Amino acid sequence: MAMSNRRLLRLTAGFSLAVTALAACSESTAPDSAAPGGAVSGDVSVMAVWTGEERAAFQAVLDGFTRDHPGVRVTYTSAGNNLPTVLGTAVEGGDPPDLAVVPQPALVTQFRERGALKPLDFLRAGVEADFPPDIARIGVADGHMYSFVFKAANKSTLWYNVAAFEDAGVKPPGTWDELIAAAGTLKAAGTPAYAIAGADGWTLTDLFENIYLRQAGPEKYDQLAAHEIPWTDPSVVAALRTMTQVLGDSANIAGGTTGALQTDLPTASAKVLSDKPSAAVVIEGDFVPTAIADNPAVKGGEHYAVVPFPSIGGSDPATVVGGGDSVVMFADSPASRALATYLTTPAAARIWAERGGFSSPNRQLPGDAYPDELARTTANAVANAKTFRFDMSDLAPVAFGGTAGQGEFKLLQDLLANPSDVDGTAKRLEAAAAAAYGG
Fold first, then answer.
1. Alpha-carbon gap, residue 73 to 112, rounded angstroms
2. What is the pTM of this model?
3. What CATH architecture is 2-154+322-392?
4. Cβ-proximal residues to 147 (8 Å cutoff; 6+ apart), any chain
5. Most buried of 146, 176, 319, 360 (most Cβ within 10 A)?
6. pLDDT in tens, 130-161
């Protein structure tokens, strides 16, 4: 599952040494441009995390490229969950791939700050024209473009059981207040409103981030992500308090608080995406349906559907918290440039989009590229986002934002267990953040 990859792909302790080793090797003069179309020739190597069905889908994209560029031979290496280590080792040995696709901005930043990456400025005009501004900016630093998002994830989605909503006579919520009101009605009709995957602490960080971005706004979000404001800031306390409107409604959570703390995301998702639901709503990303991929009897649109994360206090509905796998370049050559350019195009995106499990940030990709209406809905929300922010916990030091049993994961699980302790939670979050960020 894509999200497990993203959570497991954390920077390793020896990474800085590996990147530094490449810096001395990365001063070669770049060619001015790639040759057009089939005139390009040579070898190009690519490394990414994708295995299994995702590997097959990406290979299909690469095959599309080689059909257009028969003179180029592409070699793909799948590093799986060990990408930081495998890629770092390749860098340390002076033999990195020409291109890599990495799932965390922090990983891109580590390479860039040590001079290991080649600029992608030859792609900048096209990316800025075709991608939402906030997504295009993710790869820009120090006046240059060093990466672009190829495969995006929408984590601002609310999945609901169609029959549970119809039986209770409620409509899918467009606002937070409507969600809270609908939850009460669902409970009265006999179905707990919420399936909460509290055993996976990262799902709670996603809920917080969606609330915080809508309630505090993107400027505050960026400040908190960089720890430029403390976790005791009033905006954080307010978002935590809003969060407890769901976490504190124990009688309306499938399995109650204790059950929620023992439930992982696949299990929570299956409670809602079902012909016999035991909960009505699961709030998580576009990857939720993978939990029931082996159950063809449950059908999207018939048994379950999706709407955007509810607006809070008049926030723009076109607001997305998400993730993305970004392309970076270690070796500049006409073949590298040609493949990187191809990966920005709707033609490349369409090949994977038609297979499912893929969202493109490219606004030029027609909606009919996606295999069904639900995939189209979640992907179009990314491509048309007016505000897009990367998952905050993925931007944080691993000790704070990415380790089970500690930091943000553990402290938000503690808030689920004791939702009355908002102020204490904020103080403990700030203490953990200060230690992880170095003060």
1. 27
2. 0.90
3. 3-Layer(aba) Sandwich (3.40)
4. 102, 108, 117, 120, 138, 139, 326, 327, 328
5. 360
6. 999 999 999 999 999 999 999 999 999 999 99
